[in-house]
Write a structure and sequence with these properties.
By secondary structure, the protein is an alpha+beta fold. It has nine helices and 30 strands. β20 and β21 form a beta hairpin. It is elongated and about 95 Å long.
Length: 598
């Protein structure tokens, strides 16, 4: 496949996304009401110097960053052990900003000023970096770099115009032979964090900017109102470019305009972030099938693409001096060094995606997070192992005052023929959601803490692998295929005694099936069109698991309730686990379950 054709497939997830879509078609109005921004960890990843608390990225304390990578210097003259520590300090105290890599020499500070405009919010962009003072080049200057310049000057809405030209006054006699080309990601708060390259210039192609003020807004009936108060043209939404400055124009999309890549979480990103070794979509969509891109030969490219490549190679040879390091690479490195839990990845990764009436028997290692809760002499419910000493189940399955009566069986495939890998764990305590309603089944979720081994300070379940706990309700969407598993009864109400699984589909607008009992934020519907695969009595508390683009398993739902098991028009109802991420992390500890956004 040619590179151009492959990128076209990536950019056009659906043929309708390739058309010039109207505002009504492109933006999700219900999502817009949530006022998501680049600090909303329901939609984006937090930076390494931030953590996800109550669905918002908040400042992380400096000591929670990796210990050492390379020294960096701040504008206050203080050294920090690494970029993350400085940025977390800046997050808490915004006046502390990045100056340069390495130890502080005391020679000058970074500064940015706007020259020769009609107000303090506009002008040519001039920076001071160490002993160098220079204007920024027009080359590569975009809304991304312009936003960073305006952030530094204190304009929270970023830039509104990065193409306006500014002339030197007649009384200024200056001869300019070089400028600094800036290359930013848009996450920076100062151009010192961007890659700055010194280039030759004739003094004419210099970058200017108009920063956002209320007076600078051009408002009409077709304007998009950013969460930060800024107005931008509607045609600049959902194109993968952060025109708002707070990313709110790219976070509630049904598709992307030409030039943007559509994450299934409803976010548009720039195609230049595809296959760069870093997940930018929270579902990892941007890092899938990257081997297909490969290193294309010239014959797979158009003439213009070949010329662009050769021009860029020639420009690299013309570089005079790179004055700053790439702190975006440091940020990516820091993310890889942050604590990561091992969840959702099986030793046996093979699941046949074939719909089998009534489900199919599970093989050894296929659902290593599945547990069985036994009370007395009978199988009572299912559950999901989520790491440490913790199991997730349904509130209606357990009672706090009889925790000593429960056993948690792991690795069980056949109740009538116990396999060697089966383990039996005792229960220490049961935690039921404080707002659980036994009538409506709202907040039907509970945690079981297993007893630690007498000789060890933790629980060790050798054949059990935890499923990941989702932090965002946008990781999976209606129409996605997921898997339900359990040892419950079939549609004939007969005991199965064997672990079975089936592939089902997430269903939107479930209120049409259960008009008075379905609560959208707390519940999820899933099933098949003909009802042939469903969770039934005895499966309660067990897992509904969905796989992300990288084949990592998340416990998306807890089997809760339903009507007319296995019948059409009566899908199963599950407790939506993502809604309870903070509740779960409060009890088990965030570091145990946070695969990302730690």
């Amino acid at each position: 496949m040619k590179l151009g054709h492959y990128l076209l497939l990536l950019l056009c997830v659906d043929l309708s996304f390739c058309k010039n879509l109207s505002q009504e078609d492109l933006l999700d109005e219900k999502c817009l009401q949530e006022k998501y921004t680049s600090q909303s960890c329901d939609k984006v990843f937090c930076h390494p110097w931030e953590k996800c608390i109550d669905k918002s990225c908040t400042c992380k304390l400096p000591y929670q960053c990796p210990k050492t990578i390379s020294l960096v210097c701040s504008t206050t003259g203080r050294n920090y052990n690494n970029y993350c520590q400085l940025k977390s300090h800046e997050c808490l105290y915004p006046k502390t900003k990045f100056l340069t890599n390495g130890t502080c020499s005391g020679q000058g500070q970074f500064d940015l000023s706007l020259k020769y405009g009609n107000s303090e919010s506009e002008g040519l962009v001039e920076v001071k970096l160490g002993n160098t003072t220079a204007f920024i080049c027009q080359k590569n200057w975009s809304i991304t770099e312009a936003n960073v310049a305006c952030y530094y000057r204190g304009f929270k809405g970023g830039a509104v115009n990065y193409e306006k030209r500014f002339n030197f006054p007649h009384y200024v006699d200056v001869k300019i032979t070089s400028c600094l080309e800036a290359n930013c990601r848009g996450l920076e708060t100062t151009l010192a964090e961007c890659v700055l390259t010194k280039r030759k210039t004739n003094g004419k192609n210099l970058a200017g900017v108009v920063c956002h003020t209320e007076e600078a807004d051009l408002i009409n009936d077709d304007s998009f109102h950013c969460v930060n108060g800024k107005y931008i043209p509607q045609e600049k939404t959902c194109d993968g470019i952060n025109d708002c400055g707070d990313q709110s124009d790219e976070l509630c999309c049904k598709g992307c305009r030409k030039g943007g890549f559509f994450c299934k979480s409803g976010v548009c990103i720039s195609p230049k972030y595809l296959c760069n070794g870093e997940m930018d979509c929270i579902g990892g969509d941007d890092e899938v099938n990257c081997e297909d891109l490969g290193h294309s030969e010239d014959q797979d490219l158009t003439a213009s693409e070949i010329q662009d490549t050769r021009n860029s190679e020639h420009e690299i040879q013309e570089e005079e001096e790179i004055l700053s390091v790439n702190m975006d690479e440091d940020r990516k490195l820091l993310k890889s060094l942050l604590p990561q839990i091992n969840c959702g990845v099986r030793n046996n990764t093979h699941i046949r995606r074939k719909r089998v009436v009534g489900g199919k028997r599970a093989n050894k290692g296929q659902f290593p997070w599945q547990v069985t809760i036994k009370e007395g002499e009978r199988i009572h419910c299912g559950g999901t192992y989520i790491g440490g000493c913790w199991v997730l189940t349904a509130a209606h399955c357990v009672r706090k005052n009889v925790a000593h009566r429960y056993q948690v069986w792991t690795g069980l495939l056949d109740w009538l023929k116990i396999n060697n890998e089966t383990g039996i764990e005792r229960v220490n305590r049961v935690i039921i959601h404080e707002d659980y309603n036994a009538v409506t089944y709202q907040n039907d979720i509970a945690l079981i803490e297993l007893k630690k081994h007498q000789t060890k300070p933790t629980c060790e379940l050798p054949t059990t692998i935890p499923a990941c706990v989702p932090w965002s309700s946008y990781l999976f969407r209606p129409g996605d295929k997921c898997f339900v598993s359990g040892l419950g009864r079939d549609e004939g109400k007969k005991n199965l005694y064997k672990l079975k699984w089936g592939e089902i589909q997430l269903i939107g607008n479930c209120s049409k099936y259960y008009s008075t009992r379905f609560f959208e934020k707390e519940m999820e519907c899933a099933g098949t069109d003909d009802g042939s695969i469903d969770a039934c009595k005895g499966d309660s508390g067990g897992p509904l698991v969905c796989m992300d683009s990288n084949n990592v398993a998340y416990v998306w739902g807890v089997v809760s309730w339903g009507e007319n098991c296995g019948k059409p028009e009566y899908p199963g109802v599950y407790t939506k686990v993502a809604h309870y991420f903070d509740w779960i992390s409060h009890h088990v500890g965030r570091s145990l379950i946070s695969k990302y956004n730690v």
